[in-house]
Recover the amino acids of this structure.
């Protein structure tokens, strides 16, 4: 049994991109003889991979660190990693006084050496791994699979960082400019996932459509995606997340439509539907581009499911601008919509804008938008009744199997509820018999008359 000082407890908070980094740290620690545990009490090393994107995520990260710090023994180390660590830097120790180390977003691959430094320091002053050159450190490949498994699905990170200048977002200041992973390495990891029996590869980055820009590639995501099915010939599903408006190219649409294993699904966060709000957000404000591109996507892939997200209550948002957003979603009939009330982020350009919208108005608008979207989602789901869809089965309970169709990304979209016990981890043909606003009901095709 490894000694407790060689046992670690790793808590991962935030998005799938953070989960990938956490699993990479776990791989590196395992290579060096460390063993994970689900119990903080049994660990000598406590690591929290934090999220710093919005206020509620920062509070969750701080709460987790403070709880671990309160129960920390003298022989334990407490390390903050990830986005909040990068954002707060040395200030994080003021927020969590018993913290021993802070390691930034681009230095998770140094976790083993960092722990060794902390152990040599004999638990004295906190150590920091936040050098100025963090923006380029991500180009180092640590030799671990940069993917996170969720059942038989895998999130595969293709890049890290962002060069967009959205006025409300802290990500560029946390992550730095984008660093794309080399094509051959990404394809090699897809091949490894293929050999592991993965059923779905989900390509992720802060902005997948910016992939390859720093490598001098033009239309890099399309070029990568074109090679992906051959690299992983047995993987039936490939999914794209986090596309940026204005960068969904004709070539990308062509590649998506050319191979049935590239799912007709696109996540493209638009953030608003009024050009004046988008200009204040420092986002692409060409609404006509959105209409044209949605038309192109649906013409090339009639069954495509399009997911988007919107921010309501952005500083200065008028009733007329919000009404225009409601009209926008009614016009475009998105399959999946997420809505968020604007979060005031200190240090971002939007924080200094006048006419901040009251919290109660933001929440009212968020509810109103989701209520406007609900019948749209229901109608689009009802149109599937009678069709046979491939469904990836992910669980079973109370006589019902639970899965996802190609229209559903993990955790953020709906589910398909199928009568009976079906094999978990396999893709099954399901005839859709019922529809709700977010979920579908069906029978395995072999069960239908």
């Amino acid at each position: 049994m490894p000694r407790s000082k060689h046992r670690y407890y790793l808590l991962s908070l935030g998005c799938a991109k953070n989960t990938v980094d956490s699993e990479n740290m776990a791989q590196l620690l395992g290579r060096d003889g460390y063993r994970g545990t689900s119990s903080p009490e049994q660990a000598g090393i406590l690591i929290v991979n934090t999220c710093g994107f919005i206020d509620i995520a920062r509070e969750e990260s701080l709460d987790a660190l403070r709880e671990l710090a309160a129960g920390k023994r003298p022989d334990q180390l407490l390390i903050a990693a990830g986005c909040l660590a990068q954002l707060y830097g040395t200030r994080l120790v003021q927020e969590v006084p018993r913290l021993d180390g802070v390691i930034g977003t681009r230095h998770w691959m140094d976790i083993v050496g960092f722990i060794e430094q902390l152990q040599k320091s004999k638990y004295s002053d906190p150590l920091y791994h936040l050098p100025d050159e963090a923006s380029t450190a991500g180009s180092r490949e640590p030799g671990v699979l940069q993917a996170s498994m969720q059942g038989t699905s895998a999130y595969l990170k293709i890049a890290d960082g962002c060069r967009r200048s959205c006025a409300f977002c802290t990500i560029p200041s946390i992550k730095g400019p984008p660093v794309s992973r080399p094509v051959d390495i990404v394809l090699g990891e897809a091949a490894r996932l293929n050999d592991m029996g993965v059923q779905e590869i989900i390509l992720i980055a802060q902005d997948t459509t910016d992939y390859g820009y720093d490598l001098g590639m033009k239309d890099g995501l399309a070029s990568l995606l074109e090679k992906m099915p051959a690299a992983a010939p047995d993987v039936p599903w490939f999914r794209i997340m986090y596309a940026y408006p204005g960068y969904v190219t004709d070539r990308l649409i062509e590649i998506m439509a050319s191979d049935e294993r590239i799912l007709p699904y696109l996540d493209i966060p638009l953030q608003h539907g009024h050009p004046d709000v988008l200009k204040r957000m420092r986002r692409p404000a060409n609404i006509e581009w959105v209409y044209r591109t949605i038309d192109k996507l649906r013409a090339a892939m009639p069954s495509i499911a399009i997911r988007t997200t919107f921010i309501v209550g952005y500083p200065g948002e008028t009733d007329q601008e919000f009404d225009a957003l409601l009209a926008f979603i009614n016009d475009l009939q998105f399959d999946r919509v997420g809505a968020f009330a604007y979060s005031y982020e200190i240090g971002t350009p939007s924080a200094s804008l006048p006419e901040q919208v009251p919290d109660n108005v933001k929440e009212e608008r968020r509810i109103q938008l989701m209520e406007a979207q609900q019948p749209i989602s229901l109608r689009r789901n009802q149109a599937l009744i009678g069709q046979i869809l491939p469904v990836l089965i992910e669980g079973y309970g109370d006589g019902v199997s639970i899965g996802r169709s190609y229209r559903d990304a993990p955790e953020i979209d709906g589910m398909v509820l199928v009568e009976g016990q079906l094999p978990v981890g396999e893709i099954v043909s399901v005839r859709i018999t019922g529809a709700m606003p977010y979920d579908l009901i069906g029978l395995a095709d072999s069960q239908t008359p």
The chain has three domains: 4-136, 138-382, 388-447. Confidence is low (pLDDT under 50) at residues 133-139. The first strand starts at residue 7 and ends at 12.
